[in-house]
Write a structure and sequence with these properties.
The protein is an alpha+beta fold. It is globular and about 60 Å long. It has helices spanning about 20-30, 60-70, 80-90, 100-105, 105-115, 130-140, 165-175, 230-245, 280, 285-295, 320-325, and strands at about 10-15, 35, 50-55, 70-75, 125, 145-150, 160, 180-185, 190-195, 205, 210-215, 215-225, 250-260, 260-270, 310-315, 330-335, 345-355. It folds into 3 domains: about 10-95, 3-Layer(aba) Sandwich (Rossmann fold), CATH 3.40.50; about 125-185, ATP-grasp fold, A domain (Dna Ligase, domain 1), CATH 3.30.1490.20; about 190-355, D-amino Acid Aminotransferase, Chain A, domain 1 (2-Layer Sandwich). Helix 1 links the parallel strand 1 and strand 2. It contains 11 helices and 17 strands. Strands 9, 10, 11, 12, 13, 14, 15, 16 and 17 form a 9-stranded antiparallel beta sheet that branches. The mean pLDDT is about 95.
Length: about 350
């Protein structure tokens, strides 16, 4: 473990979206500077960071200058080109480490990793050809969902197969990419645990939140989630097991299905996570500060919750609700300052604190 960063140090962030924006704000509260590497201009993180390297991920000169300008590098999304990471890591520490990225970038690798830890996942099989898909359906059954192994998010790169006749179109929807077939899980609801691990190996987890999705996009997260004491303990222990197995440094989101047979791991995200936004109003140290603390080598906050919160994403035309939300005394708005409102685009979120009594 290296020495903790001191105030005034610069944290590099790969990606300039809303997660990078909120990481930059958290870093500034702790006295750090931030430098964002993002190919797009006028991105949400650039508005609040100290520096913005506007360059492509294959621009080796820009990547080198970026790495030499910062003290540690983290990231706000998973799909960073391997060559870019190779170059950056040769010059400056990258946290969380590369192994977590390697695993999470490929759904099949991720499922194998989780299964090898003894954790339960949906039944799955690798699919490249029509013959693979036929064999996978015979093994797993229907209904099922076909997903690209890489580069999928917010419901993209997925096709449901409800009956055998749907298979050929689902495979065509993968546009030739390697895929994975996952069997449906009979779950009552989905929860997620936002966990953190420090460079010294300490682990702290926030309370599980209960998630509701619409059209493959997270709509709300509510804490506390509907879980028994045993389920809540199991969820946190599962997150800790994953963090320790990866020798992880930073914040991770772990999505879980709640079933009568126990908790099933849906997926992991090696970064701060949309379902953890409630921590901004529910905890003394939120997920963004927790991540900055971890990558900077600082002690973690304990993740304790002092309020019940409902987080709601503001998607597309939901921005029309902002004037009314601003009048709600229990609503905390977080707007991302994206240049254009688009259907299905996350424009911000609101955390509503639930008053007791």
């Amino acid at each position: 473990m290296t020495d903790p960063l001191t105030t005034g140090a610069t944290i590099g962030i790969l990606g300039g979206g809303q997660l990078g924006r909120m990481l930059s704000v958290a870093a500034s509260r702790l006295g750090f500077k931030t430098c964002v590497f993002e190919p797009g201009g006028d991105c949400p993180a650039s508005h609040v960071s100290n520096f913005h390297f506007k360059a492509a991920y294959n621009d080796e000169e820009a990547l080198r200058r970026f790495a030499e300008a910062v003290d540690v590098v983290t990231y706000e999304f998973e799909n960073i080109p391997t060559a870019a990471l190779d170059l950056i890591e040769s010059l400056v520490p990258v946290r969380p480490g590369r192994e977590a990225l390697r695993i999470s970038q490929d759904r099949l690798t991720e499922k194998d990793f989780l299964s090898d830890l003894g954790l339960t996942t949906a039944p799955y099989a690798a699919v490249t050809t029509a013959e693979d898909l036929e064999a996978a359906i015979a093994k797993i059954g229907l209904p099922a969902i076909l997903k690209t192994r890489r580069f999928g998010y917010d419901g993209k790169g997925q096709a449901r197969i409800m009956q055998a006749g749907d298979a050929s179109q689902a495979l065509a929807d993968m546009t030739g990419q390697e895929a994975i077939l996952e069997g449906f899980v009979a779950f009552s609801h989905e929860v997620s645990v936002i966990g953190a691990r420090s460079a010294s190996g300490d682990v702290a987890c926030f309370d599980p939140g209960e998630n509701v999705h619409e059209g493959g996009i997270l709509r709300t997260t509510t804490v506390p989630a509907r879980l028994s004491t045993a389920q809540r303990t199991d969820a946190v222990l599962m997150a800790g097991k994953i963090l320790n197995a990866l020798n992880y440094v930073g914040v991770m989101g772990v999505e879980l299905f709640v079933t009568p047979q126990g908790l099933v791991v849906n997926e992991i995200a090696p970064r701060v996570h949309n379902s953890g936004h409630w921590t901004q109003q529910g905890c003394t140290v939120d997920q963004f500060e927790q991540h900055i603390r971890a990558v900077a080598g600082w002690p973690l906050g304990d993740g304790g919750r002092y309020a019940d919160v409902v987080m709601e994403n503001l998607i597309g035309e939901d921005m029309d609700k902002v004037p009314d939300i601003a009048q709600d005394r229990d609503a905390a708005l977080h707007l991302y300052s994206k240049a254009e409102v688009k259907p299905g685009r996350k424009m911000g979120h609101v955390n509503r604190v639930i008053r007791q009594g």
